[in-house]
Write a structure and sequence with these properties.
The protein is an alpha+beta fold and about 400 residues long. The protein has twelve helices and five strands. The radius of gyration is 31 Å and the shape is elongated.
Length: about 400
């Protein structure tokens, strides 16, 4: 391919960022920050009392049987306090902090105790509660005085104090590290994968039951009747066998279509280029295919790419009202990129519209993929999918 390809990674980031807004001195952002700063004192009092009580009581009684369980219970409760503080910061300071992954289920009292005693999220939340009391007193006092006596500079004071709060929330209440964040994302993605697999299994079962299975049952009954008439009425039996032969051809075609929907043979044998050309040939809109790959990706990635293009071309056929479409596939370092364009009416979007793009984006996200849709009203539409590149083994 000679065309320059856009960078979906940068497009995806840009698509996900909120539009830049000009902030006014006494706009709603300032008043949300002031509200947060005034609420710091009561919130800090609750957090400080809880942290001191739960930690000191647990440590003081650690020489007894109930000490460590009390400390573990206090740490478990600290997670709830951290959750409420993240929600407060999210609502008033626009701080997007990922929720830590839940603790793994424990199979007994001792594993439950040990898991909570070594929970870094809970310990950092307790530390947050301890250091927030003096800070809460400072922010409450300065903000209150500024409201009364320092009105002209209040927005700047609120912005500076809120920036420090944002730093504390991100530093102490965010997931422990990148691994912790990835665990939380993967646990969310696992549900998407399981739901998708279950839906596919239900679809395959329905197609088998309503299609090939029903046809084969009718075929067996027809052959049974033909067998009974073989000696009494050979001509009728021959006609019934001929009809059964047609049913066999239809059943075989349905099974081929079903197998293609699971994993097409042309993809296994000849790779993405041939498989996508086959898809384009079945599309109701004339479509061109250009694949620029020096080697084939891993089987799983190749299959995801195939079915992504399949769904996007189905959208073009059903919704785009386009005259032409194109499919391009290429590799950029450690990513596999594919792009489907059409000259249709546009208006496709990820958040609805009946095109299934939201579900496709979720399925791609479950394997660290990205889906970017550019579809202004009136067209054209460009959908770019980005998948991790994994080398084929063997």
């Amino acid at each position: 391919m000679t065309a320059d390809h856009p960078s979906p990674s940068s497009s995806a980031v840009a698509a996900g960022d909120p539009p830049a807004r000009r902030r006014t001195a006494y706009g709603k952002e300032t008043w949300r920050e002031i509200s947060f700063l005034l609420l710091n004192l009561p919130a800090a009092l609750v957090g400080f009392v809880y942290a001191v009580t739960s930690v000191l009581v647990g440590i003081a009684l650690s020489v007894t049987v109930i000490g460590l369980p009390l400390l573990a219970a206090g740490l478990a409760g600290a997670r709830g306090i951290g959750r409420s503080e993240r929600a407060r910061a999210r609502g008033l300071l626009d701080v997007e902090v990922a929720e830590p992954s839940p603790l793994p289920p424990a199979g007994g009292a001792l594993p439950w105790l040990w898991t909570r005693l070594k929970d870094p999220v809970a310990w950092r939340t307790q530390l947050y509660g301890l250091i927030r009391l003096p800070w809460g007193v400072v922010t409450f006092s300065v903000t209150l005085v500024s409201l009364v006596a320092l009105w002209p500079v209040l927005p700047f004071i609120a912005r500076g104090l809120a920036a420090a709060d944002r730093g504390m929330v991100r530093g102490l209440l965010s997931p422990s590290d990148e691994l912790e964040r990835r665990i939380a994302e993967l646990e969310s993605d696992r549900g998407v994968v399981v739901d998708t697999a279950a839906a596919d299994l239900r679809r395959i079962e329905r197609d088998l039951h309503d299609g090939a299975q029903a046809r084969l049952v009718a075929l067996a009954m027809g052959l049974g009747l033909a067998k009974e008439k073989l000696h009494e009425d050979p001509d009728a039996a021959a006609a019934m066998v001929a009809e059964a032969h047609g049913e066999v051809k239809l059943a075989l075609q349905e099974l081929r279509d079903l197998a293609r929907g699971i994993h097409p043979a042309v993809l296994t044998d000849r790779g993405l280029g041939a498989a996508l050309s086959s898809l384009a040939g079945r599309c109701t809109v004339p479509a061109t295919v250009a694949v620029d790959l020096d080697e084939r990706p891993a089987e799983a990635i190749e299959g995801i790419a195939y079915f992504t293009v399949s769904e996007l071309l189905q959208n073009v056929s059903k919704h785009a009202r386009a005259r032409t479409a194109s499919v391009e596939v290429w590799r950029a370092k450690d990513r596999l990129l594919l792009q489907v364009r059409d000259d249709g009416v546009g208006g496709a979007r990820l958040d609805g519209g009946g095109t299934g793009l939201a579900g496709l984006a979720e399925r791609l996200g479950a394997v660290d993929g990205v889906l970017v849709v550019e579809s202004p009203e009136g067209g054209p539409t460009t959908v770019t999918a980005e998948l991790p590149w994994r080398a084929r083994r063997g």
